[in-house]
Amino acid sequence: MPDGFVIEGNIDLSDRGLTKLPNMSNVRIAGEFTISRNKLTTLEGAPKYCHDFYCNQNELTSLKHGPKGVFGHYVAWGNKLTTLEGAPERVRYFDCKRNNLTSLKYGPKLVTEEYSVDNNDLKSLEGGFCPESEYVSYDMDGEREICNRFSFEGNKNLKSLHQMPECNKFYCDNRELLGEYELDDVSKWVDGPADDAEYGRYYDDLKESPKFKKEQKEYEEIPDKVEHKLTSLKRKLIEIKKEEYKEKIQKKNDNKEHDTNIRQMSNNTKQKIMNNKKSRD
Hints:
Blueprint: E1 6-7, E2 11-12, E3 28-34, E4 49-54, E5 69-70, E6 73-75, E7 90-95, E8 110-116, E9 147-151, E10 167-171, H1 175-180, H2 194-197, E11 200-202, H3 203-207, H4 210-280
Parallel strand pairs: 1-3, 2-3, 3-4, 4-5, 4-6, 6-7, 7-8, 8-9, 9-10
Antiparallel strand pairs: 10-11
């Protein structure tokens, strides 16, 4: 197909036992592109743009070569993902439940509706928070867009809520962890049905937590600490270069002196030979 060719409608390649995709990297799909329940280990060949993308229940370990422009749903649950590398920058729904993720590095910079990483092996939420300096988007009313709902239940090894994606509300079933942020109280539950509200919390309440404030302050100080270390390192390197230059000059001078001494010795030897010759004559 020619580069940039647009396919109107949906393409469904699910349940076909595929181990690789046909090369569709040059086309755009106006509807859904579905490749669920196959045996894919790579997304190489996938289109770069589609409205919705479903690649759930394959054997993918990363999202490399996947669509970079997905406007609606990006669904990749039930794979073997260890990294979110290759994820789109912005998407409406992002579902990566039941994988092997340990962090959110390389994930989307903005998920406007629902971001789900339930039942992974998250050790941290590193990569989840995206500062405005890196990416910012505004809605039709001129309001800055943030995620509506972020869910990360079933991650028992998570020890911190630091770097969580900015959102309206989040869902976590680790009561001990919530307690560390003073959020394990009925008054902090989100509004809604009891089975939904029990694990839901508001991001604004998290921001008021002393522990979260401390973590955020330390995080913001990192660039200054890094700059200080770099400055100190630069100074050390300059001093080392100065010493190396001094040693080089000294060695050069020593060599000059040595050459001078050799020449002097040579001249003295020649003079002695001439004097001895004259004496014999």
